[in-house]
Write a structure and sequence with these properties.
354 residues, alpha/beta, Rossmann fold, 2 domains, nine-stranded mixed sheet, 9 helices, elongated, binds nicotinamide-adenine-dinucleotide
């Protein structure tokens, strides 16, 4: 049997604990210990039975530690990752990888110089709702997709921690924007985004955004609306996807939803009907058997594949499932989103290849 790779978790907070839980199912990795900058967190980890590294230097010096997971606040990722790679460590980093493209380039430069690997935990690629939409698209169930709305909405505001602070890379664009942008770019990987318009909300009065709306236009004509809100007591669907012969909706994480496809031609003459105080045939519902309704397909996902892939990547047996050029593109769009919101303008996205 292959020797397990030794791992240290950096940052014993919400996400750090989640990593530890998930790693229980990853036989390729042995968790050697936990380090947190706060003594109370170290103590808490100790009480849960984890071996503790007293200092960051102790982690870096330990030759048994091959992999680090950085689950610390956003602004710490770049400096910690760079230092770790210069000490020979392989790095899994929480999202957002960094707060800017320039900083990300320093990280990937360090990876290049040291021959180490750096992979970002874009775990929401494994969300079932996203995989369902991906599958409907791959199987061409809806015809050519011309519009996607992807949302995450809550009603609890932003947690009262570093997420409310600019210096730590707080705000919803960094927090959830990276996931939504990452997924939409993958969904439309056959084309590319050509323009972006973003509108950030500050309903709660913090110094960082508590939500956003981003509109992306793609070269093939498709459009996407990405939306995050933290003051939504009634949620609108997480996914609403329109193709030329069908529409899909996924309401929530419990995967309530359906899709409807056309049986015949789009333009089927209808009799005008009364709706509200008016008359319409354009908007007449299809109650004539010209469409079929389907349940959402069943998909199975396992986010722990992420860690297994990283081990394979280190051993030179696989390509990273989350590629650094993909992460860089997401960070580039985040920068453009901030710029668009600040100027209230649509920003054209220049392709580096052109
Ligand atoms: P948290 O505040 O709960 O935990 C962060 C921990 O890091 C704290 O215990 C803190 O003491 C520690 N810390 C801070 N600076 C440190 C340093 N220099 N060295 C060592 N420890 C340090 O935050 P969280 O919610 O766990 O978020 C951590 C990271 O995980 C963030 O980047 C966040 O965006 C990300 N995250 C990702 C997901 C996801 O689904 N991928 C979900 C939640 C959070």
């Amino acid at each position: 049997m292959r020797k397990k790779k030794g791992l240290a978790l950096i940052g014993y907070g919400g996400m750090g604990k989640q990593h530890l839980k998930r790693l229980e199912n990853v036989s390729e990795i042995a968790v050697l210990g936990v380090y947190d900058i706060k003594s109370a967190k170290k103590q808490a980890a100790k009480e849960q039975g984890w071996n503790i590294f007293e200092t960051w230097e102790e982690v870096l010096r330990d030759p048994a530690v091959e992999i680090l997971i950085l689950a610390t606040p956003n602004e710490t990722h770049a400096p910690l990752a760079i230092e770790a790679m210069h000490h020979g460590k392989e790095v899994i980093c929480e999202k957002p990888a960094t707060l800017s493209v320039a900083e990300f380039d320093q990280v990937t430069q360090a990876a290049k110089e040291t021959g180490r690997h750096f992979m970002v935990h874009q775990n929401r690629r494994w969300d079932e709702n996203y995989r369902i939409i991906q599958q409907l698209k791959e199987e061409d169930r809806l015809g050519e997709i011309f519009s996607v709305e992807s949302r995450v909405q809550g009603s609890r505001g932003i947690p009262d921690d570093w997420r409310r602070l600019k210096e730590n890379g707080g705000g919803m664009l960094y927090d959830w924007g990276v996931h939504l942008i990452d997924r939409i770019l993958l969904l439309f990987r056959e084309t590319k985004p050509v323009s972006i318009f973003a509108d950030l909300s500050y309903v709660l009065g913090h110094e960082v955004d508590d939500g956003f709306r981003i509109r992306l236009a793609f070269k093939n004509g498709a459009r996407a609306l990405l939306e995050v809100g933290t003051v939504n007591f009634i949620q609108t669907p997480e996914w609403y996807v329109c193709g030329k012969i069908g529409t899909a909706v996924i309401e929530d994480y419990e995967l309530h939803g359906r899709y409807i496809t056309l049986n015949g031609k789009l333009a089927k003459e209808a009799q005008p009907i009364e709706t509200g105080a008016g008359l319409t045939k354009t908007m007449a519902p299809r109650n004539d058997g010209s469409t079929t309704e389907f349940s959402l397909p069943y998909v199975q996902t396992d986010v722990t594949d992420f860690y297994r892939n990283f081990v394979e990547v280190i051993d030179g047996h696989a390509e990273p499932v989350v590629k650094n050029e993909e992460v860089r593109q997401v960070l580039h769009l985040i920068e453009l989103a901030f710029q668009s919101a600040a100027t209230n303008q649509v920003i054209l996205i220049e392709s580096e290849a052109e």
